[in-house]
Specification:
This protein is an alpha/beta fold. It has helices at 72-78, 116-129, 148-151, 158-176, 195-204, 251-254, 270-290, 295-302, 305-313, 348-353, 358-367, 379-391, 421-445, 477-480; strands spanning 22-23, 28-29, 56-58, 66-68, 138-139, 184-189, 210-216, 233-239, 260-268, 327-335, 448-454, 465-471. The longest helix has 25 residues, at 421-445.
Length: 481
């Protein structure tokens, strides 16, 4: 009689050719492929005492991975987390706001820990500060013919359609502002895969002298940059945090020949403030410093015959503006106000004029997430969504609206008082509006004519506000010709 087969352990068996190390935290075996003749992967060999002669230690540059101790020196030279040489356009904190230690609140507790009186006082300050602000924005939901086929592609899923509708509307608004044309440089902040620039380039067709600078602080997979090989447009990807980006040091902009159009789709929280300061403050200032030639002469030297004739009809040099900015316009879809930071916020002066400071700003930016609390799922569903996104390598990281679920660090479901979901949503929208109004005033002071509008349906994205700005004094005669 044959002996009975051994009973498999409750943990099961590792897959063939995979690591035999059981990961207790994940309740499963490691899924890494092992080398021929080995039972464990390199990561778990030490833990399983497979190779007692060699010890694995945490990488000092990034403790998320380990390395053999005897190979540490070699590893540090090629580790992806090593500090790389800084490019010329990196200037530490050039776009960061001034750090005023006296304005940093000493003790800030979660909103859920505030008493009823404290919360009521904050809401009163918010409503008083928001008096007179128009909380109903105009609808500028647009489209563009270059996205017609993509929008009607039956192979699109809900997520792809959602992004295409937003890109189409942003592109339509860029065109409406007369910013879609030749001889300019489009700087896409928070570019991700670069899809917004992709559609701008297609819409421009064979326009001459078009340059794209795609700014993203992390390495991005599945980029679309390589699809553009036209002679008349150039794509340049810049991996840097906007906080340290000096546009005037980028070679194509060093000569100041191309007006800049700043664009972005869902530019997350603090990144919006950094991008605005990068464009209208540090870049404009550095441009003025390195241009010593009289403005009227410089513009005349750069004009084509057609442009000179156009100006002649309008009064020639009498109509050349006294002030000039190298920024032709700004079109940014706003996002994630709860990730704003007081130090980098461009609207500090606006808040101070209202009698508000860093403490109020902190709570208002946290409360801004209430604008999406009507779409909140249960904690179990939210956890499942977060877990699924971490496991899905194709998740589009450039979308920052949390899928409309408004998941934040604060437990807003256990707030003191009797605030209903609808009341919380209204307060959240007021917080967003107040923060954006500070940005509007900042742009006005810098010589721009800014505006806020809805650019997509809230069913497409709850983060549906577009910030646009055109210089009061045009950046170049060719923009207005």
């Amino acid at each position: 009689m044959a002996a009975p087969a051994p009973t498999p352990p409750a943990k099961g068996f590792p897959a063939e050719g995979r690591c035999n190390y059981y990961v207790e935290k994940k309740k499963r075996f490691c899924r890494m492929v092992v080398a021929a003749g080995k039972r464990f992967c390199g990561e778990h060999a030490a833990a399983a005492e497979e190779e007692n002669a060699r010890k694995r230690i945490l990488c000092p540059l990034d403790p998320k991975h380990t390395v053999y101790e005897d190979q540490l020196a070699k590893h540090l030279k090629k580790c992806n987390s090593r500090e790389k040489p800084k490019p010329d356009f990196f200037i530490q904190d050039i776009n960061a706001g001034l750090k005023d230690e006296t304005e940093i609140p000493e003790q800030l507790v979660p909103i859920s820990s505030l008493s009823e009186d404290q919360l009521e006082n904050l809401i009163k300050k918010l409503r008083k500060a928001s008096e007179g602000l128009n909380s109903t924005l105009k609808d500028h939901i647009m489209s563009h013919p270059v996205l017609h086929d993509a929008l009607n592609d039956p192979r699109n899923g809900d997520s792809a359609t959602k992004h295409l509708k937003q890109q189409a509307s942003i592109l339509g608004n860029i065109e409406k502002l007369n910013l879609l044309g030749p001889r300019r440089c489009f700087v896409e902040f928070g570019a991700g895969k670069g899809k917004l620039s992709h559609w701008v380039d297609i819409a421009l067709k064979d326009a001459e002298k078009v340059h794209f600078i795609l700014v993203e602080k992390v390495s991005t997979r599945f980029k679309v940059d390589g699809k553009h090989r036209k002679k008349n447009s150039v794509f340049e990807r810049v991996q840097i945090d906007i906080q340290h980006l000096c546009l005037s040091k980028i070679p194509v902009l060093r000569e100041g020949k191309l007006p800049v159009v700043g664009i972005g789709k869902h530019l997350c929280g603090v990144a919006t403030d950094l991008a605005l300061r990068c464009l209208v403050e540090t870049y404009a200032a550095s441009y003025e410093e390195r241009n010593e030639e009289p403005l009227a002469k410089r513009i005349k030297n750069d004009q084509t015959e057609k442009e000179i004739n156009t100006l002649a009809m309008e009064g020639n040099e009498k109509n050349v503006p006294e002030k000039w900015t190298p920024v032709a316009g700004i079109v940014i879809a706003l996002c994630c106000h709860h990730r704003c930071e007081w130090r980098h916020y461009v609207g500090k002066e606006y808040f101070r004029a209202l009698g508000l400071g860093g403490a109020e700003f902190h709570y208002f930016q946290r409360m801004s997430s209430w604008a999406t609390c009507g779409m909140r799922k249960t904690s179990f569903e939210a956890s499942a969504i977060t877990s699924k996104r971490k496991d899905n390598q194709n998740y589009e990281s450039e979308e920052h609206d949390n899928g409309g679920y408004g998941i934040t660090d604060d437990n807003t479901d256990s707030l003191p008082g009797l605030l209903t979901i609808e009341e919380k949503k209204k307060i959240g929208h007021l917080c967003k509006l107040l923060i954006d109004q500070g940005r509007i005033q900042y742009l006005q002071q810098k010589g721009f004519n800014p505006a806020l509008q809805y650019y997509t349906d809230p069913l497409v994205s709850l983060e549906n506000v577009l910030l646009t700005a055109l210089p009061i004094h045009p950046s170049s005669p060719e923009i207005t010709a």
